[in-house]
Write a structure and sequence with these properties.
The chain is an alpha/beta fold. Helix content is about 30%, strand content about 25%. Helix 3 packs across helix 4 and helix 7 packs parallel to helix 8.
Length: about 325
């Protein structure tokens, strides 16, 4: 019998209906479709509209999807982890809110914040609970309503982000498939280049912070790009090397969808042709924790049991990492 591993047994995504195009952004801020496409590869992004609609509204759709696909009752779930930077509230955890909305009663749940790397951090964390043999069904959610922390007068950042969500079910696997290896890293000195200035305990909300738009994403784009393009590519290549895999052994790269140039650089570093790289940034933009599960969801029908898949991400903090997954099921 092979080692007990955590396998992804279902994937479900969700994006809001409203499409914010580059053409519409041209009417909101000093930018053009050509400028956005040339620098980012983004043509449109989805926005969650509606009063009191938080991140959990999207997550509920995704979680119900994985429950249905795996014929799992809500009360059979052992643990739910939600990776997000845009929780419904400061507390309780958005994971708790999701659990309540879908009827998960016999589990515990918590949020995990590692910026755009959060889904990978949560996936690796969740896998350890499966590998101990204690838990049988763990749901990992990656979800963000980035429109809630956007300054739509800042053309450097508002063109980049959208809203979206994905969720996976993890279950025990002993047939040689599942989550095989991971590399997770952090460099806290990078926090100065990408963060939200106010809203935390160091700088609580005030009339001044609201007036100064300090509750929106702050990013020094060039500094973030230079770091991301190196670290994400190097880590993806490293996980191949330490598992003795060559480019022809990799079926898919699933990169965080932050910037098309970063994605291309990572694929080249791994020696992969473009057709092995999942890209949907043109449709959804950067949905932060939602990008990787949304890719898996869109490509699910093309994934085959035994496929070697590398997930790679980079986020504010700075955080970054890569996960090697051997896909556990054939298209249904």
């Amino acid at each position: 019998m092979s080692k007990l591993r955590a396998a992804i047994t279902a994937i479900q995504g969700y994006v809001p209906d409203y499409i914010l195009t580059n053409k519409e952004l041209e009417t909101m801020v000093d930018t053009t479709d050509e400028w956005i496409m040339t620098r980012t590869g983004i043509r449109e992004r989805r926005i969650l509209k509606g009063e009191n609609m938080g991140t959990s509204e999207m997550a509920v759709h995704a979680v119900r999807g994985v429950l249905e696909k795996t014929n799992t009752l809500p009360e059979e779930v052992d643990l739910l982890i939600c990776a997000t930077v845009t929780g419904d509230m400061v507390y309780p955890a958005t994971a708790n809110i999701i659990s309540d909305k879908v009827g998960i009663k016999n589990a515990w749940s918590f949020d995990l914040n590692a910026a755009c790397s959060g889904f990978l951090y949560a996936l690796v964390t969740a896998s350890k609970f499966i590998e101990t043999g204690e838990y049988k069904k763990v749901i990992v959610v990656g979800a963000d309503k980035m429109s809630s922390v956007m300054d739509y007068t800042d053309r450097q950042t508002c063109v980049l982000f959208g809203d979206g969500c994905g969720a996976v079910m993890l279950e025990p696997c002993t047939d040689g498939n599942g989550i095989m290896d991971s590399i997770m890293q952090v460099d806290g000195s990078g926090r100065v280049f990408l963060h939200q200035k106010a809203g935390g305990s160091a700088r609580p909300a005030s009339h001044e912070t609201v007036d100064n738009k300090e509750h929106s994403v702050y990013q020094e784009g060039q500094a973030v790009f230079k770091f991301a393009v190196t670290k994400m590519a190097d880590t993806a290549a490293e996980i191949m090397e330490r598992n003795h895999l060559k480019s022809e052994d990799i079926s898919w790269l699933v990169p965080h969808q932050a910037n098309l140039r970063i994605i291309d650089a990572t694929g080249r570093r791994m020696g992969l042709p473009p057709e092995k790289v999942m890209i949907n940034i043109q449709k959804y933009g950067n949905t932060t924790n939602g990008t990787i599960p949304l890719c898996l969801w869109e490509w699910e029908s093309q994934l085959k049991k035994g496929d070697n898949i590398v997930l790679a991400a980079f986020g504010g903090g700075f955080t970054w990492g890569a996960v090697l997954v051997k896909w556990a099921y054939d298209p249904k």
